[in-house]
Every structure is written in structure tokens, then in C-alpha cells.
Specification:
The protein is mainly alpha-helical. It has 2 helices and no strands.
């Protein structure tokens, strides 16, 4: 029964897929024979496609299941590695391998070797150096190197070097310097350079110097004096003209600009304000004070003294009577 049901589902799927593909490709075709041929062709293709799908789908599902299972197994294995195996291996390494190796290194290798180095090798080496090697090396250096080399240096190398420097370097250089350089240069200096120098000195003193003095006194100095006078005269005239121009310019500026401005400023900013201040603030109040206060006061005082004097004279006259 299940087999028949699967066959019916398979044929229904093939028929549906065939109808869909045939409807899509035969829209513009009105020929029934071609349409039937196309339907049959699509039916055969659909049989293959559905059969391939039926065979491929279980394999695809199986692939996905195996992939999921492998992913879960990998997650479990990674968790097992990180949480169980690595800590166990680290503890095994720490307590079963590292500690024994460290114990073996420290107590079976390092400490015995240090003790052996300090107690045996170093003292034995020092004893061998002090008792055997140093005297032997000292004997070899003194009696086989130093004494032969010093004898060779004092008896062979130094005399040979002195003889070579004296007879092969010093005397040839002295001969070359004396006979090939000094004597020719001395003869050249004595018989050529000095006479030529004396002749040049005589020519300089008796001809060139006198000629230069005469040229200086009779040509250069008069010409220079004339040029100097001419230049000074021209410069003085030019300076005079420039000075007069500057003076005239300043005088014009003074007359036309500065003096009128100063005069206007003195007149309207100093004289008139001062006159107004003198008249309205000093002279008028002073005249008013003199007229209204001082003069009446003076007249009153004079009148008072005059009245007292008159009364005094009257009193004296009464007493005389």
C-alpha cells in the first residue's frame, strides 16, 4: 500500500512539473502537434528530474544530519579538550614530569656539579696553575722568549737598524740635501737672486720712486686739488641750493600753513577764551565786588573814623571850655 502511495505521489509530482514547464514554453505556439510533442518531452524530463530529486533528497538530508552530528561531536570534543584533557595533562605534566625533572636537575645535577666545581675542580685547577703551569710558563717566557728576544733586540736589531738609518737613510738624504739642493740654491741666491734684488732696489730707489714722487707732486696732486676744488665747489653749490630749497620750503610751510594755524589757534583757542574768562570770571566779579562791597565798606569805615574824630574834637573843645 505504501509503495502504491509513493508511486502515485511520484506520478502526480511529475505531471504537475510537466504541466508547469509545458505551460511556460508553449504560450506562443498554436500548433497542437508541436504542443503534444513538447508536452511529451517535458514529461520525460520531469520523470528524470523527479527521480533525481527523490534520489538526491535523502542523501542531502543524510548529509545535513551527518554535518550536524559532526558539528556537535566537534563541540563536545573541544569542550572535552578544554575542560578535561588539558587540565588533566597540565596536572600530569606539572606533578608527574616537571617536578621529577626539576628534582633530578636540582638535587642530582646542579648541586653535585656546584659542589664538585667549588670543592674539586677549582682547587685542583688553582693548584695545577700555581704549582705546575705558572712556573713552567714563567720559565718559558723568561728563558725562552724574553732573554733571547732581548739579546736579539740589543745585539742584532738595534745595531742593524742604526746602521741602516745611518748609512742608507741619513747619509743619502744629507748628501742629496747638501750637494743637490743647498749648494745650488746658495749659488743661485748669492750670484743671481741677490744681484737682481740689489739692481731692482737701486732701480726702485733711483728711478721708479723718484718718477712716482715727481708724478705725484707735479701731476696727481695738482689734478686732485683742482678736481677736489671743483667737486667741493659743485657740492657746496648743490648743498647751498638744497639748503635754500629746504629753508624756502619750510618758510613757505610756516607762512602758508603752520603760522596761520598757530595764529588761529592762539586767537580762537587762547586769546578769546582767556579774554572771556578775564572779563566774565575775573574782571566783572571783581568790579562788582569792589563796587558793591569794598567801596561801601571803605566809605563806611572812613565815615566812621571821621565821625569819631569829629566827636573827639568836640569833646576836647568842651574840656577846654
Amino acid at each position: 500500500m505504501l509503495t502504491y502511495l509513493l508511486v502515485i505521489v511520484y506520478l502526480a509530482a511529475v505531471l504537475i512539473l510537466t504541466i508547469i514547464q509545458w505551460n511556460r514554453k508553449s504560450k506562443d505556439q498554436w500548433n497542437w502537434s508541436k504542443s503534444l510533442f513538447l508536452f511529451f518531452e517535458e514529461f520525460v524530463k520531469s520523470l528524470g528530474k523527479v527521480a533525481f530529486f527523490i534520489c538526491y533528497f535523502p542523501l542531502y538530508i543524510l548529509y545535513k544530519c551527518f554535518g550536524w552530528l559532526a558539528q556537535q561531536i566537534s563541540h563536545f570534543v573541544s569542550w572535552l579538550w578544554k575542560q578535561v584533557i588539558v587540565p588533566v595533562l597540565s596536572r600530569i605534566w606539572e606533578y608527574l614530569i616537571a617536578l621529577p625533572i626539576r628534582f633530578i636537575y636540582i638535587y642530582l645535577l646542579d648541586l653535585p656539579l656546584r659542589w664538585l666545581w667549588k670543592r674539586v675542580i677549582v682547587p685542583v685547577t688553582l693548584w695545577i696553575w700555581k704549582t705546575i703551569l705558572r712556573p713552567v710558563l714563567r720559565f718559558i717566557f723568561v728563558y725562552l722568549i724574553y732573554i733571547p728576544f732581548s739579546w736579539l733586540w740589543n745585539r742584532v736589531l738595534v745595531p742593524v737598524t742604526v746602521w741602516i738609518c745611518k748609512y742608507l737613510i741619513y747619509h743619502p738624504i744629507r748628501f742629496v740635501l747638501f750637494y743637490l739642493i743647498y749648494i745650488p740654491l746658495r749659488w743661485l741666491w748669492k750670484y743671481i737672486i741677490l744681484p737682481v734684488a740689489h739692481f731692482c732696489t737701486w732701480v726702485w730707489k733711483n728711478l721708479i720712486l723718484l718718477l712716482l714722487v715727481w708724478v705725484w707732486n707735479h701731476i696727481i696732486v695738482p689734478i686732485s686739488v683742482r678736481i677736489y676744488r671743483l667737486v667741493l665747489l659743485v657740492a657746496a653749490k648743490w648743498a647751498k641750493n638744497v639748503f635754500l630749497f629746504i629753508i624756502n620750503m619750510f618758510m613757505w610751510v610756516w607762512k602758508e600753513a603752520i603760522f596761520p594755524m598757530v595764529r588761529w589757534a592762539g586767537l580762537y583757542l587762547i586769546k578769546h577764551p582767556a579774554h572771556w574768562v578775564w572779563v566774565h570770571l575775573i574782571q566783572t566779579p571783581a568790579a562788582r565786588v569792589i563796587r558793591q562791597v569794598i567801596k561801601p565798606s571803605v566809605h563806611w569805615i572812613i565815615q566812621l573814623f571821621a565821625d569819631q574824630r569829629k566827636s573827639g574834637h568836640k569833646g576836647k573843645r568842651d574840656l577846654d571850655r
